[in-house]
Amino acid sequence: MAEFATNESYITEFVILGFSNSLEQKVPLFLIFLLIYLFTLVSNLLIITLIFLHRNLHTPMYFFLCNLSFLDIFLTSVTAPNLLHNIISENKRISFSACIAQLFLFNILTTVEYMLLTSMSYDRYQAICNPLRYYQNMNKNTCQIFAGMAWIGGFLAPLPISISISALPFCSSNQINHIFCDVAPLLKIACGDTSATERLIFVAGVLVVLNCFILTVTSYVFIISTILKLSTSKGRRKAFSTCSSHLTAIILFYAMIASMYMKRPSSYSLDEGKVQSVLFSNIIPMLNPVIYTLKNNDVKETINRMTHISFKSLRSRRDTMK
């Protein structure tokens, strides 16, 4: 599993330990994660299809939601197929280059999600605090600029960290006690000085995570202040309903980020991190469509309309055949 050069040893592949190797747990774990992955793909593809096909959903909020659904499909696809393979297979090896690629892609998509959720917070701020100028302030060009900045920024921000980790020497162990190639598990097995990489992670956290969090909180301070100033309880409920789905997704996302990454890598518990990583990389992408569907009347009405049309078409076809 490790190859040797003439003067020094270096690792060219890793072994991802994943979960228990117990034969009794393999099939149930595989089926659970397979169902989660399939549900995530189908539900997010459904949202994308609904938004694409129905003009009443061609609004700034659904433009960002469509981007979020694409993102969740990619995010879970970076880790889930490899996780499923590792559960059912005895071969848990991954090449060094594939491991770094997985790390980079996961960090890209996570960073994009910070920025997209922040853009959605600003969208909700404009919708509630400036409703008369909403479509002027959040026009097509503005939405595309916000989304483009999120995807480009998501690619650039994790690049120094990924390069720094790829340059670290891995010579003592090639076993990653995790479910995929993530930052903290890789730093745990690196045999060189990781302080420079940890400083990069801190700087990225301040520049991306902290700034996105501050901008999101600021948006919601203005949103809540505006809602509380409304004269009727009905108006307050209606205004809050327009941002309740996004607020739920924001709380869930940042709660998971805080539990996973707001600590020094040296104090990171790998066994605890496995569970948190499953929640973050598999459960959140699965829950996002559910949150936005269950709490969003426009999406529910569109689904009901599509279901009604489908049943009506089937009934008319059956009557024709008779």
> Which CATH first-tier class would you pick?
Mainly Alpha
The helix fraction, in percent, is over 70%
The spatial strand order of the largest sheet comes to 4-3-5
Counting structural domains, the number is 1
What fraction of the residues are assigned to beta strands by DSSP? under 5%
What's the overall geometry?
A: globular
List the helices and strands in order: EEEHHEHHHHEHHHHH
Q: Give the helix tally.
A: 11
In the CATH hierarchy, what is the architecture at level 2? Up-down Bundle
How does the helix and strand content classify structurally?
A: mainly alpha
CATH topology name:
Rhopdopsin 7-helix transmembrane proteins
Query: Could you tell me how far the N terminus lies from the C terminus, measured between alpha carbons in angstroms?
Result: 67 Å
**Cα Rg:** 23 Å
Uncertain segments? 1-8
Overall residue-averaged pLDDT value? 83
Question: Quick one: biggest sheet?
Answer: 3 strands, mixed
Number of strands: 5
What is the CATH homologous superfamily assignment? Rhodopsin 7-helix transmembrane proteins
